[in-house]
Design brief:
Rossmann fold, 59% helix, Tetracycline Repressor, domain 2, six-stranded parallel sheet, alpha/beta, 21 helices, single chain, 6 strands
């Protein structure tokens, strides 16, 4: 007796991602000034949208997050000489490439420019090919319920909310595969709370203005910290969605929740507006308008960085340094202080040096891995290492010069009783910058330099001495 074929869905089943969303955001990243075209294609039908995206966007199918339990199921059924069919609503271009890469399928049924092979269209196609109840089907979504109703046996893979309950009622569920666990820890990792440490820069103006004991200003600073954290996390999600392809080629970033497929793209997309609404609603209600404006500038700048600035040589590091400086400005306006020339000049140079540290460490890792080509998603080559280190060290030392000039400023002399004591902060800063670059050159900088600064014991001790010096000068 010949077994009925086993039909496998693609998005959310064979792979733990959605190729439509991936290709859509890849198109936006690749052609940001044509971002409205997908809307025009969509109005002409989903099949047209998928066709146009597939023609323009290349996806490396070798690094897609395949579900190993589904592949094991396919291999087990193939050993029984069973026919395996890939039937997907993704475009045929991608489906054929995946089938060719895995070499597990006898046939491929997929969306083309004339038909979006989803829900009832997929059901009708399979019934026409194999007859009612003439096939088994593995899927995951609400759109698959109609297909399961026409199948002999249903295989449910990482079901969407409510899908398993509705599918079980049909009485033909053979097996439920749950390899994708959406835990709270995954969301924490995706929101990157460790990156919120950068928002401690909001409190720098309070420290510089000797207002840390001002309870009202401190509470405003804490609220600003939370609002910036929410806004930043929404941007991190967008950045990870845009960088899916690049992250999957990276030795460590491939393990991120979105790149690995453990966190569905659709859930991340829904989380972005919620985080943004909470951030800007809180700013509009509780904070000065200048802070809300700075928060908006930060959001636009981070989007610009994520979409195209990160791929532009030199513009990327300048943008990174500005994003750090924006946090200081946010602290200024959140606490109703006034920005000073010295604070902005110092922050610009020191953060430019830290941005160059970040880029240097990435390029050094690429060179150590034997890669001499332009780094994926960036505008640099490993051969640029020496120039980047020179620029970074010079920028760091310029921040020391700004500090020295600040000590001689008349407003500084008026603010401190013993301004000459601040001179001793200069060698401390020189030591820290020199050590930072030496560690980076040795390949010991494995994290964002700002995160490193607030977690490294020597850096924390240097910072403590730095603060004590300014306290003694008061």
């Amino acid at each position: 007796m010949i077994s009925s074929p086993l039909v496998i869905d693609l998005d959310g089943t064979l792979i733990r991602t959605d190729l439509l969303y991936q290709s859509l955001f890849s198109f936006i990243k690749q052609s940001p000034f044509q971002c409205l075209w997908p809307l025009f294609w969509f109005f002409r039908g989903k099949a047209q949208l998928k066709t146009e995206l597939a023609r323009r966007i290349i996806i490396d199918v070798s690094v897609l997050p395949y579900d190993q339990e589904v592949i094991a199921l396919i291999e087990s059924e193939r050993d029984k000489k069973r026919q395996i069919i890939l039937a997907t609503a993704s475009h045929k271009i991608y489906a054929d490439q995946i089938a060719g890469h895995l070499n597990l399928f006898d046939r491929v049924l997929a969306t083309d420019e004339h038909c979006n092979l989803s829900s009832h269209a997929k059901r009708d196609c399979l019934v026409k090919e194999f007859g009612e109840g003439g096939f088994d089907y593995a899927g995951n979504s609400h759109a698959d319920l109609l297909v399961w109703a026409a199948a002999a046996k249903a295989y449910i893979v990482n079901p969407e909310k409510g899908v398993e309950r509705r599918a079980v009622k049909k009485g033909n569920v053979e097996r439920v595969i749950k390899s994708n666990v959406n835990s709270f820890g995954l969301w924490l990792k995706a929101l990157r709370p460790h990156q919120w440490l950068k928002n401690l820069l909001i409190f720098v103006p309070l420290l510089a203005a000797h207002e840390l004991i001002n309870v009202a200003a401190l509470l405003s600073g804490l609220l600003a910290f939370v609002l910036f954290a929410l806004c930043a996390s929404s941007v991190y999600l967008i950045n990870d969605i845009l960088d899916l392809e690049d992250d999957r080629h990276h030795p460590t970033k491939r393990g991120r929740p979105l790149a690995s497929g453990r966190l569905p793209i659709t859930r991340a997309i829904m989380a972005v507006p919620l985080l943004l609404f909470a951030s800007f609603a809180g700013a509009l209600i509780f904070m000065p308008w200048q802070f809300t404006l700075i928060l908006g500038i930060y959001y636009i700048a981070t989007l610009a960085y994520s979409i195209f600035l990160k791929r532009v040589t030199a513009a990327d590091i300048i943008a990174l340094s500005l994003l750090y400086t924006i946090r200081i400005l946010a602290g200024v306006y959140a606490c109703s202080l006034k920005p000073t020339f010295w604070m902005l000049a110092f922050s610009m140079f020191i953060f430019l040096s830290l941005a160059l540290v970040k880029r240097y460490s990435e390029l050094r890792e690429a060179r150590c891995n034997g890669n001499n080509e332009k780094t994926k998603g960036r505008g640099y080559y490993p051969a640029d290492l020496e120039m980047i280190s020179s620029l970074g060290a010079a920028s760091g030392y310029l921040s020391v010069m700004v500090l020295a000039l600040y000590i001689q400023d008349q407003s500084t002399v008026a603010m401190y009783r013993h301004p000459q004591i601040i001179w001793s902060a200069c060698p401390i800063l020189l030591f820290w910058i020199t050590r930072l670059w030496l560690l980076t050159n040795r390949g010991e900088m494995h994290d964002d330099p700002v995160i490193f600064a607030v977690t490294d014991k020597v850096s924390l001790f240097s910072g403590l001495i730095f603060v004590i010096i300014f306290w003694l000068a008061i």
